[in-house]
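Troubleshooting entry. The earlier prediction with iron/sulfur cluster gave an output that would not parse, so I re-checked the input for stray whitespace and re-submitted. Clean input:
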Amino acid sequence: MAPQDSSPAELIDQFGRRVDYIRLSITDRCDFRCVYCMGEDMTFLPREEVLTLEECERLVRVFVGLGVQKVRITGGEPLVRKNALWLFEQVGKLPGLRELVLTTNGSQLDHQALPLKEAGVSRINISLDSLDAERFRKITRVGDINKVLRGIDAAKAAGIARIRLNSVLMRGFNDDEAVALTQFAVDKGIDIAFIEEMPLGQVDHNRESSCVTSDETLGVLQQHFRLVSSAETTGGPARYWRIPDTETRVGFISPHSHNFCESCNRVRITCKGELFLCLGQEDVVDLMPLLREYPNDDAPIREAIVNAMKIKPKGHDFDLRRAEPAVVRFMSVTGG
Ligand code: SAM
Ligand code: SF4
């Protein structure tokens, strides 16, 4: 008989915030090397240190059993993981899950968008930092923009309900593209969010001088578009503006200028099975040993997750003026 389990059916942290959203990174690998996200030479984890797809499915199932309603699969680049689609298919079937969403660089979407939609993916965030092929290559170091553009069209054609571009503007790289990227989103009938660069991991450029704030970008866009502030939320940290008479919402994710921690409803799980309670802090619970020690009993994992809520920090404290990155791990490790 399975051991009795008295854990609650929802996750509430020490500040009364309900956690109903998880972001799961299924790989630290990527086919791009974006300058703000990775170093040029990355050493990736050996396979045995990465959760198997079955372990990923099991973890998501346990979280959904604890009241999690939204799951974002991310990475690294999630779609470069072999058989990733299998995981989407399994997670898409979980009773109780309301939303299965994906963050991707778009490079594999031209052939994967339709099966992902069929697996139950309702929204996709696609990173796009430049519309210029040469610049795109410079920022991603290796990426082919045409593949990504084909991927965006494939996601639209597959009927993904909401598609959002994610753009990180960096001074001296692509800070003059806010208007062009937004116009591109308008023309495609999709959303766009501008993400302020965060000090995650050591990179080759100075983040303090490269970071373009949301307020700056908003000011530039307001000179070209009529933007109407919107109270809408997609359950994430973005603040949205609408462009009237278009399908497009413009979001701003502003960890520096606007603190979004108060309403934080999410936790992150790395591809190593580490449960990070905050993107910008080191508080972590390692779930991999429990997954492997108790292959047939979810109770210890559930208990560890419930207990982890007691150490979810109040908020991050990103400060670009610090010489050291706020946290040493890259976003590709923690999952964006
Ligand atoms: N590979 C996928 C992608 O690029 O969308 C998913 C993972 S990526 C880590 C998720 C998001 O994090 C991307 O939109 C990327 O632009 C963003 N990102 C990565 N490093 C960042 C940083 N240091 N500051 C802000 N955003 C970052
Ligand atoms: Fe890869 Fe995404 Fe990081 Fe770019 S942002 S290097 S695409 S994980």
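This one parsed fine. The domain at 11-166+264-334 is CATH 3.20.20.70 (TIM Barrel).
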